[in-house]
Write a structure and sequence with these properties.
It contains eleven helices and 17 strands. By secondary structure, it is of the alpha/beta class. Bound molecules: S-adenosylmethionine. This is Uroporphyrinogen-III C-methyltransferase.
């Protein structure tokens, strides 16, 4: 028979009986997609891997603990044959042929009536790749397409969203390294018409945007009689109302000292749809990039993230420094470079040891990252002497001294 290419099709398996014979690694890999497709999966196998066993225990599949018998494929719409015994696979696929059930064979693709493509999903798109007899190439093509859709290098924007009101995405860009944005954030960025960006965050990504994208520096939006934040809200609303797809690119996570909720509320009041994409906050990623775990077994069982933008004696401060001084765990201070001297003094005044280790990490995750170590007694002076500048994350606690073994 001439070798024709396989005919691709999407099976709609919801509620339909699918029989899987053999409970090993192949079943373990294939079962989640069958379950996700809503199939009524029956597994026939005397044994199964722990993961497959767990799926049966959770009621996701029905497991008949026995060997395959003639007749098992009655009423099946689709079968997967994957035992370690050639004769069992032969018998089951022969039954499938007679019963006209499409059947995948793990041990012999050439004897199968169906092949499983390499599949992947990105935002509602299923990618399925068949290359005939080269599964590695199928997987590589699948990865390239899925990755391209995810990071926006492969765009298919034409009919993706109604263009009359695409709205705003508040995207947490992570701490600065362009690789530390989420895949969803990166894709939305690649689809944007207008990007309003903060000073912090992955600024390098802006250089990759195509020339038609309008990039607006949030710090430079003129705000006249408005507060700066109000002017940013107005700019978001104005561009979205003009039918543009707007990304508000923020440093870290939009809701960690990021005023993300204020922007969301303003957009909601203006009737503009808004989606929020979480980001990796500098409060954990910057210490991590500098080799500091914010928790460590036997050292710190909690970490507290605090804004240091107003000093401890400032009446506007909402922070209870006295209580913080009593905590045993890690303190992570954002926006605290200017006030660290006063903060350290307050913590010592309220009972924390002067010798408590402190690390100040400036411009974390970027090429200019630097770490300066001190103690609560010395940090104010050290930050001044070393000319540490914002943005910096300050970590206070014994985790600062936890090192990788050398
Ligand atoms: C207005 S807050 C925004 C925090 C952000 N939403 C987040 O989740 O990381 C800005 C502060 O975050 C910290 N920060 C943000 N990115 C940083 C980085 N790459 N290196 C050090 N500190 C950073 C600094 O303390 C800075 O003053």
């Amino acid at each position: 028979m001439a070798e024709h290419p396989a005919y691709p099709v999407g099976l709609r398996l919801t509620g339909r009986r699918v029989v899987v014979i053999g409970g090993g690694q192949v079943a373990q890999r294939r079962l989640p997609a069958l379950v996700a497709a809503g199939a009524d999966v029956v597994l026939i196998s005397p044994s199964a891997t722990p993961s497959v066993d767990a799926m049966a225990a959770a009621g996701e599949i029905r497991w008949e603990r026995r060997r395959y018998q003639e007749g098992d494929l009655a009423d099946a719409w689709y079968a997967l044959v994957a035992t370690q015994h050639r004769e069992v696979n032969d018998a089951a696929s022969a039954e499938a042929e007679r019963a006209r059930v499409w059947c995948v064979r793990a041990d012999d693709a050439s004897a199968a009536t169906a092949w499983t493509p390499a599949t992947g999903r990105s935002e509602g798109v299923t990618v399925a790749v068949l290359t005939g007899n080269d599964p590695r190439r199928s997987a590589a093509v699948r990865d390239a397409v899925v990755e391209g859709l995810r990071d926006g290098t492969l765009t298919a924007p034409a009919h993706r969203r109604p263009r009359n009101n695409p709205g705003v995405a508040l995207v947490g860009g992570g701490p600065g390294d362009p690789d530390l944005i989420t895949v969803r954030g990166r894709r939305l960025l690649a689809e944007a018409d207008v990007v309003i960006a903060d000073r912090l965050g992955p600024r390098d990504l802006l250089a990759e945007l195509p020339p038609h994208v309008e990039v607006i520096d949030a710090a430079k939006i003129p705000y006249g009689r408005f507060m700066a934040q109000e002017a940013i809200n107005n700019a978001l609303i104005e561009h979205a109302k003009a039918g543009k797809s707007v990304v508000r690119l923020k440093g870290g996570d939009p809701y960690v000292f990021g005023r993300g909720m204020e922007e969301l509320q303003a957009l909601a009041e203006a009737g503009i749809p808004c989606t929020v994409v979480p980001g990796i906050s500098s409060s954990i990623s910057v210490p991590s990039a500098a080799g500091i775990p914010v928790t460590h077994r036997g050292v710190a069982h909690e970490f507290t993230v605090v804004s240091g933008h107003v000093g401890p004696d400032d009446p506007r401060s909402l922070v209870d420094w006295e209580s913080l001084a009593k905590l045993k765990g890690t303190l992570v201070i954002l926006m605290g470079v200017d006030k660290i001297g006063a903060i350290a003094e307050a913590l010592v005044r309220y009972g924390k040891s002067e010798q408590t280790p402190v690390a100040v990490v400036q411009e974390g995750t970027t090429a200019t990252q630097r770490r300066v170590d001190a103690t609560l007694a010395t940090v104010g002076e050290t930050v001044r002497a070393e000319e540490v500048r914002p943005p910096a994350v300050i970590v206070i606690g014994d985790v600062v001294k936890v090192h990788t073994p050398t």
